């Protein structure tokens, strides 16, 4: 996209979503009813709770370091 904000336009957003689904083979997985695999392909993780837990832990550690440096 030359203008990324164009992705906010409904037609372009739909085209981008269709491209993403096609490029990642999501339609066949969805048709097979494997919602966990659809979630993994869309979000990049299958277990969102452990992903968010690890992200929260990493953020907390980073904020602690920042807080110490501000003294």
Report on this model:
With 71 residues, the chain is an all-alpha fold. The protein has four helices and no strands. The longest helix has 23 residues, at 48-70.
List the topology elements:
Blueprint: H1 10-23, H2 26-31, H3 35-43, H4 48-70
Question: Which key terms come to mind for this protein?
Answer:
mainly alpha
Summarize the entry for a quick read.
By secondary structure, the chain is mostly helical. The chain is 73% helix and 0% strand. The chain has helices at residues 10-23, 26-31, 35-43, 48-70.
The helix content is over 70%
Q: How would a textbook summarize the main sheet? A: none
Sequence of secondary-structure elements: HHHH
Average pLDDT for all residues? 85
End-to-end span in angstroms?
A: 44 Å
Which runs of at least 5 residues are low in confidence (pLDDT < 50)?
A: none
Rg estimate, integer Å: 18 Å
Strand percentage lies at: under 5%
* Quantity of strands, as a count: 0
Assign the structural class, choosing from mainly alpha, mainly beta, alpha/beta, alpha+beta, or little secondary structure. mainly alpha
- Shape label: flat
In DSSP terms (H or I, runs of 4 or more residues), the helix count works out at: 4
């Amino acid at each position: 996209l030359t203008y990324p904000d164009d992705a906010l336009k409904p037609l372009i957003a739909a085209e981008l979503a269709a491209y993403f689904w096609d490029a990642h083979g999501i339609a066949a997985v969805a048709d097979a009813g494997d919602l966990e695999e659809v979630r993994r392909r869309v979000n990049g993780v299958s277990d969102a709770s452990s992903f968010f837990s690890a992200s929260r832990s990493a953020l907390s550690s980073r904020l602690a370091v920042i807080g110490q440096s501000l003294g």
